[in-house]
Amino acid sequence: MKKKSILLAGFIIAKFVLQYILVSSEYELQRDEFLHLDQAHHLAWGYVSVPPVTSWISSVILFLGNSLFWIRFFPALFGALTLVVVWKAIEALKGNVFALVLGATCVLFSALLRLNILYQPNSLDVLCWTTLCFILIKYAATENSEWFYIGAVVLSVGFLNKYNIVFLLVGFIPALLMVRRTIFLKKHFYLSILLFLLLIMPNLIWQYNNSFPVYHHMQQLARLQLVNVKQWYFVTDQLFYFSGSLFVIVAALYALLFYPAFKKYSFFFWALCFTLLAFIFLRAKSYYAIGLYPIYIAFGAVYLETILQSGWKKYLQPIAIIIPVLFFIPMYNMLFPNRSPNYIAKHSGLYKKYGLLRWEDGKDHALPQDYADMLGWKELADKVDSIYSTLPNQSQTLILCDNYGQAGAINYYTKNKNIRANSFNADYINWFQLDKKYTNLIRVKSLESEGDELIETSPFFDTAYVAGSITNAFSREYGTQIFVFLKATIDINKRIRQEIEDERNYH
Questions:
Q1: In DSSP terms, which residues pair with 399 in a beta bridge?
Q2: Mean pLDDT across the stretch 441-464?
Q3: Which end of the chain is more exposed for a tag (fewer CB within 10 A), N or C?
Q4: Do both 38 and 146 map to the same domain?
Q5: Of 306, 334, 362, which one is at a domain's C-terminal end?
Q6: Burial class of residue 490, CB neighbours in 10 A (0-12, 13-18, 19+)
Q7: Is 488 helix (H, G, I), strand (E, B) or coil?
Q8: Claim to verify: residue 326 and residue 433 sit in the same structural domain
Q9: 176 and 36 in one domain?
């Protein structure tokens, strides 16, 4: 086996090992993960919040047993493949061992470690961004039209995984028009666009048939989450994600403008500028842009190899490799759920200093939002299981939750195969089983929800009581209550159908 292959294998192994050890056993799955896993039970060409690819992967995970190992495996795999693509990009740019090791180290010891912890579309999104950029490198170097079609396939996978990849086009199209506009005169370019449209057509049809829920989802996102996103925070977070690799990315930007060997790739400089400006203008979440940077690490690593290859500068090579590792040490202590909630609470000042306690509501809390979203779910599921087991006519019991996290967590952690929780939130609004009659109701209601559930709902049932609540003070769902309503005096199914219609009309 060649030296380069051994090195690459070592980085891949390190990537997988780190992804599995960076999460403390005190934490559970994260809120979004439950939704994506539940999509395996409801396969379709689209969903309210995401396209279909994640549901396909979830189906594979379900087939393999739905265990934590496989849930963690796929984001780790996509992260490892991102590293491989950067490695191949460095080779395509004529980089040797130093550039390869530097680039791989920068990718490995970065915020991608945090991103690749969670089972979300983001990991595959970054892989698709990086792969498309690699394809553009190959095309710019060879002008082989085959790369158009390969790019169309990768772009379609990216689009069917997460619509966010459209922003890559927002950046690269004007950049190519500025620097390499002859690409738009190529017949194969437009044929590849047709291929892309053909591959994504089932999802577009699904969107049309369902009144474009992605549009309503984006409106809701802007209203509830992005409204608290400060444009300045977006900029500063970009510096934070690849802090140990920042010097490599800066070297890449300089080289793309002034290094003669990279003249044919200069459009990458402008693509970065246009994409970031689009994100800033739209007040996007800062991690939306994270897929931009791996390919610039490839450019920077190759350029640094050329300027550190002779004389006393050669001795700077190991220092350059060590820098990302050194920057990772404080990241290891702060940016990963490898510390207990009690530890974080006791050292909250340090976390607050770096804005890690700021949630999407714009306020500081006891834990980072993602960590709080990884607690309390087993407790909720266990209590619902216990309550359900005591009820009469269990098969006629509807479990109705306030949000997708609650419903998904119950469905994932329940030990009772007959339990299927639901919600009017996210995709669950389309998954109600209204072909059977309901007479009982288990209502899971968040603490911050408006109204008194007992007063509002008990008149429609013979029996009503509070059966439990989430007691984990660190959980984002702390205080969420579980209500039980027995022997309905109204037609629950009819009421649910009406509320589904009202909810859809509202959005």
A1: 442
A2: 89
A3: N
A4: yes
A5: 334
A6: exposed
A7: strand
A8: no
A9: yes
Which whole-number Å values give the CA distances from 13 to 7, 10, 81, in the listed order?
10, 5, 12
Range of the domain at 476: 377-506
Counted residue by residue, the chain has a size of: 507
The pLDDT of residue 125 is 96
Helical H runs in 308-423? 317-334, 341-346, 348-353, 369-372, 377-389, 404-413
Question: What pLDDT score was predicted for residue 352?
Answer: 86
CA 425 to chain centre: 19
Residues 382, 368, single domain; the answer is no
Helix (H) or strand (E) holding 464: strand 461-469
> Are 239 and 356 found together in one domain?
no
Q: Is the pLDDT of residue 388 over 90?
A: yes
pLDDT of residue 2 exceeding 90 = no
Query: Are 315 and 364 contained in the same domain?
Result: no
Residue at 125: amino acid letter: D
Task: Give residue 128's identity as a one-letter amino acid code.
Answer: C
pTM over the 0.85 mark: yes
Which of 262, 397, 244 has its CA nearest to residue 319? 244
Query: What are the tokens at 497?
Result: 């159908």
Same domain, 240 and 311: yes
Whether pLDDT at 499 is above 70 = yes
Query: What is the pLDDT at residue 228?
Result: 56
The answer for residues whose C-beta is within 8 angstroms of residue 65's C-beta and 6 or more apart is none
Nearest 5°: phi and psi at 151? -65, -40
Cα separation, 419 vs 412, in Å, equals 10
> Tokens at residue 398, please?
């509807």
**Which of 334, 364, 397 is at the close of a domain?**
334
Structural tokens at position 145? 């039209």
Domain shared by 451 and 405, yes or no: yes
